[in-house]
Amino acid sequence: MPKLDLTQAFVKKTKVPESLNSIDHYDERMPGLLLKVLPSGRKTYYIRYKNPKKVNCQRKIGNAEILSLSQARALARRKLAEVAMGEDPFKDAPLNLSPTLEAFAENDYIPYVKTYKKSWEMDISRIRNHLLPYFGTMRMKDIEKRDVVQLINDQLPDYKPGSINRVIILLRYMFNLAIKWEIEGVFRNPTAGIPLLKENNQVERFLSAEEAKALLIAIKASKNPMLQHIVSMLILTGARKREVLDAKWEDFDMERTSWRIPNTKAGKARIVPLSDTATALLTKLRKKKRSPYAFANPITLKPYKSIYYSWHTARKEAGLDDVRIHDLRHSFASFLVNAGRSLYEVQTLLGHTQIKTTQRYAHLSTTSLRAASNEVSLAVPELI
Q1: How far apart are the first and last CA of the chain?
Q2: At what angle do helices 209-220 and 308-317 cross, to 10 degrees?
Q3: What is the mean pLDDT of residues 122-139?
Q4: Region 101-180: CATH code
C-alpha cells in the first residue's frame, strides 16, 4: 500500500509486481485519492471516504487512461468536499454487486460451516463481536489490506495476540471461500500477505508422574463415582473431554482394541488405538453396563453436561489447583515425548491435522536429552 506524491509520469509507467494481484498507490497530495493498478495494465482512480453513516466506502471516479492526474485530483477534491458537508456523492450511483460481509456471513458462510465445523458457534461470536463492527456494512470488494491492519491495531490494546489471530484467520478463510465459490465482485483476499501476530500467551501445563499419581488418588475418593474412570480415560488416550463424555459403547472395538471417535474438533471421525490399561478399564466398566454411553451419569444414564465441580474438588485435594482438564491431553503428549516417541506418533494419536500444532509438545525431559546426547559418545568411544 505505497503512499507517495503521484506524478503523471509515474501513473503512466507503474506496473504490478509479479507477486501481487493488484497494487494501490495512495496520493499524498490529495488524501483519499488512490490509483489501483492491475496486472493487465489497467489503471483506475478511486476515492476512499466515510459516508454520513460513518461507513468506509471506496468508489471509482475514472479510468487513468482517460483522466489525467490533475483531473482526478480535481474530481476527488469536489467529491470529498461533498462528503465534508455531510453528503454522499455516490448515493445515486449503481450499486456494487459484491455482497456486504454481513450478508455473505449470514447467507453463505454460516450455513456452510454449520454442516461440518463443531466450533461454528465460536465463528459466529467472532463475526458478530469483531468483524461486523468494522466490515459488516462494507462490500467485500471494498475491504482493503489497510482496513485489516486497522482492525488489528485497534484490537491490540484489548485482546491477546492469539485472539486477534483467530479473527484474522477466520476473515481469511471467509474470503478464500468467497473467491472459491465465485461470489460476484470478490476477486482478492485483503488478508493476503498480512502476517499473524507473535503469540507469547500460551500456557502449557504438564503433569509429572508424581502429580498424576496424586491426582488419581484424589479422584478415587471423589463423591462422583465416574470421575476416576473419566479422568483415567483422558490421561490414557489424550482425548478431549467431550469426546470421552459422549463416547458410546458401539464406538469401541474391543477385539481390535480401538476407539472410533465419530465427532472430532476437525469435523471428521478418527481412530484411537487403546492401550492395555485403557482396554482393561473399559472391560471393567462394560460389566456394569446400564447405558449406551460408556461414561454415563449413573443417575440419568446420559452423558454428563459438566464434571467441573467434582473435578475442581479433586484437583484441590491433590494440590493441583492450576491443572485444567485439557492439561491431561497435554500431559498425555508430554509422557509420550519424554518416553522417546516421535512427534509424528504424538500427532497421529492426538488427531492433529497439522504437525505445527504438535510442536508445542516437543519438550523433552533433561534425562531424555542427556540420553540422546550420550548416543554420540557411544558411537565414538575413542574421543577420550
Answers
A1: 61
A2: 120
A3: 91
A4: 1.10.150
Classify strands 252-253 and 56-63 as parallel, antiparallel or unpaired: unpaired
CA gap 144, 190 in Å, rounded: 5
- For residue 313, which of 220, 205, 186, 185 has the smallest C-alpha distance? 220
CA distances from 42 to 35, 36, 62, 278, 318 (A): 10, 8, 11, 65, 69
Q: Which position has the grid cell 460513518?
A: 54
- Residue 17 neighbours by CB under 8 Å, 6+ apart: 23
Burial class (CB in 10 A: 0-12, 13-18, 19+), 198: exposed
User: For residue 259, how many C-alpha atoms fall within 13 Å in the half-sphere facing its CB?
Assistant: 27
Q: How much is the pLDDT for 3?
A: 76
CATH superfamily, region 209-369: Intergrase catalytic core (1.10.443.10)
Domain boundaries, the chain: 3-84, 101-180, 209-369
pLDDT above 70: percentage of residues in the chain: 88
Residue 367 or residue 340, greater confidence:
340
CB 9 within 8 A of CB 71: no
CB distance 241 to 270 below 8 Å: no
pLDDT of the residue at 238: 85
Other C-beta atoms closer than 10 Å to the C-beta of 334 total 24
Look up the CATH number of domain 3-84.
Answer: 3.30.160.390
pLDDT tens for 8-36 read: 999 999 988 877 767 889 999 999 999 98
Output the pLDDT for position 371: 60
Residues across the chain = 384
- Is 1:146 a contact under the CB 8 Å cutoff? yes
Q: Which of 97, 128, 58, 118 is nearest to 265 (CA)?
A: 118
Instruction: Give the tens place of pLDDT for each residue, 40-84.
Output: 778 889 898 887 777 778 888 888 988 899 999 999 999 999 888
